[in-house]
Specification:
It is built from 16 helices and 23 strands. The protein is an alpha/beta fold and about 500 residues long. It has 2 domains: about 280 residues, Aldehyde Dehydrogenase, Chain A, domain 1 (3-Layer(aba) Sandwich); about 180 residues, Aldehyde Dehydrogenase, Chain A, domain 2, CATH 3.40.309.10. Helix 1 packs parallel to helix 8, helix 8 packs parallel to helix 9 and helix 10 packs across helix 11.
Length: about 500
């Protein structure tokens, strides 16, 4: 079994206790590899390395173009390992090999390149408007790196999340300590290998695997860390924000969601049904922006639901390493218990379970649960308000579109959502009224490395991806250059002197 190591200050090493932990394939519950269990002390060492590398200024002092050249080497190495990454991603997290081969590996690697290229092209000098009262001066803004960034990532898209934290931090000139989720560290560790091979200055990139409750607090409280970027649950986000407050770190948080899919009467029915199912059951529902509340108009309700129940039967649940499988298990026993708890709760709350709700027949190993659809759901029920993070859809009937929008917005979350309609301008008007960071029209889930992604309300703080996301890895420095030729003309010095 492969035994992975931490990467600190340009070297691979074990945890200081030597302790390791097996990571498990959720499809068959078998161990895949051994991963170090880092201590607080290991975390401190990584932070110190990142701090020293940043303060020395080698990486931060390089031109973005030179940094991009180094990072494109990482991209080339990742590209050569694409199929390995796809396979490992599927085994470690239970994502289907179909998805990791078609999406996580190729798209994650492409995102790495796109983020590096976009970051390298961002203007770091921003002229400001001319000021002629009360003084004449030349003012401009320079974008500088923030410093030491901690990247804390979840288990649902382990490789993509590692890329989304690492590429922006590095191209903008920061140093980073990356902490993958305990259940799915392997592809982030492969990213570390690629970075090691590309020979970045030591300490610029570090990776620490270990428990969130040990490594996390060190990353969020150590005064040497300037910024924490977390993708995770809203609960963890609140914790991180509290911990980071003591040293007023910059934070960006990508948190949970309970996103709405609003189907309009004039929607293309085939598209809307498949879109709503894709929005919910893709990756067994373990996606932060999943459209887990589907609003369907009463006028087409029966037809829509009949087609939905037929189409949900076309989802092929099974061994995630089989290319024909389109839905795998959830990531862990704990997650399966949570999902089952919500399925029981939905029934207690009076929703009607139309399909699913149980382990698929004949599958005795692995953390599997069938795609589950509830209707007769009221938006105030807990199954419609709380993030389940599993393959569970709540269908809510509506009569008037204003009522649908109002219910869509009646949520503590605001991450994603979709509108299905043949009238695109009308759908855009509705999208503008949905209080979430991303709205798809006649589609779902397509995140684009060049477009910002993030949450309103308790779905997060700040944005990731796109120019907005890259700028979150910079500080704004204002420089004022006085252009007044001589002392006598500086009338504002008279604020202090009257002679
Ligand atoms: P989680 O919050 O349990 O863990 C996320 C990361 O935080 C892990 O690496 C974990 O080890 C770490 N962590 C745990 N406790 C910590 C602490 N006290 N201090 C610092 N770090 C700590 O989330 P998860 O279960 O891994 O992932 C699922 C959640 O992530 C869902 O809520 C989902 O919506 C959210 N998510 C959001 C996005 C987004 O972009 N908005 C994307 C993916 C997942
Ligand atoms: Mn695993």
């Amino acid at each position: 079994m492969e035994r992975y190591q931490l990467f600190i200050d340009g070297r691979f090493c074990d945890a200081d206790t030597g302790e390791t932990r097996p990571t498990i394939n959720p499809g068959n519950e078998e161990p895949i590899a051994l991963v170090p269990v880092a201590t607080r002390n290991d975390t401190k060492r990584a932070i110190e390395a990142a701090r020293r590398s940043f303060d020395e200024g080698t990486w931060a002092g390089m031109s973005p173009k030179d940094r991009a050249a180094k990072l494109m080497k990482v991209f080339e190495i990742l590209k050569s390992k694409e199929s390995e990454i796809a396979e490992l991603e599927s085994k470690d997290g239970g994502s289907t090999i179909r998805k990791t081969t078609m999406m996580d590996a190729p798209v994650g690697i492409e995102h790495f390149k796109q983020l590096v290229e976009l970051g390298a092209a961002l203007p770091l000098y921003e002229p400001l408007p001319w000021v002629d009262f009360p003084f004449v001066s030349w003012n401009f803004v320079n974008r500088e790196p923030i410093g030491v960034c901690a990247g804390i990532i979840p288990w649902n898209f382990p490789f993509m999340m590692a890329v989304w934290k690492t590429a922006p931090a590095l191209i903008m000139g920061n140093s980073i300590v990356l902490k993958p989720a305990s259940d799915t560290p392997l592809t982030a560790l492969e990213l570390a290998k690629a970075i090691a091979e590309a020979d970045l200055p030591p300490g610029v990139f570090n990776i620490i695997t270990g428990s969130g409750s040990v490594v996390g607090p060190e990353l969020c409280t150590n005064p040497m860390v300037d910024k924490v970027a977390l993708t995770g649950s809203t609960e963890t986000g609140k914790n991180v924000m509290r911990m980071a407050a003591d040293t007023v770190k910059k934070v960006t948080l990508e948190l949970g969601g309970k996103s709405p899919t609003i189907v309009l009467e004039d929607a293309d029915l085939d598209l809307a049904v498949d879109g709503a199912l894709f929005g919910t059951f893709f990756h067994a529902g373990q996606v932060c922006e999943s459209g887990t509340r589907c609003f369907v108009p009463a006028s087409i309700y029966d037809k829509f639901m009949a087609q939905m129940l037929e189409r949900v039967g076309h989802i092929k649940i099974g061994d995630p390493q089989d290319f024909e499988t389109t839905m795998g298990p959830v990531v862990s026993k704990a997650q399966l218990n949570t999902v089952n708890g919500y399925i029981d709760l939905g029934q207690t709350e009076g929703a009607r379970m139309l399909c699913g709700g149980k382990r698929p027949a004949g599958m005795n190993k692995g953390f599997f649960i069938e795609p589950t659809i509830f209707d007769n759901v009221r938006n105030e029920m807990r199954i419609a308000q709380e993030e389940i993070f599993g393959p569970v859809l709540s269908v809510i009937r509506y009569n008037d579109v204003n009522e649908a929008i109002q219910m869509a917005n009646d949520s503590i979350y605001g991450l994603g959502g979709a509108v299905f309609s043949r009238n695109v301008p009308g759908a855009i008007d509705i999208a503008k009224r949905i209080r979430t960071g991303t709205v798809w029209i006649n589609d779902y889930h397509l995140l684009n490395a060049l477009a910002p992604f993030g949450g309103y309300k308790q779905s997060g703080v700040g944005r990731e991806l796109g120019p907005h996301g890259l700028l979150e890895y910079t500080q704004v420095k204002h420089i004022h250059v006085d252009l007044t030729a001589d002392r006598k003309k500086r009338f504002w010095y008279d604020y202090l002197f009257n002679d």
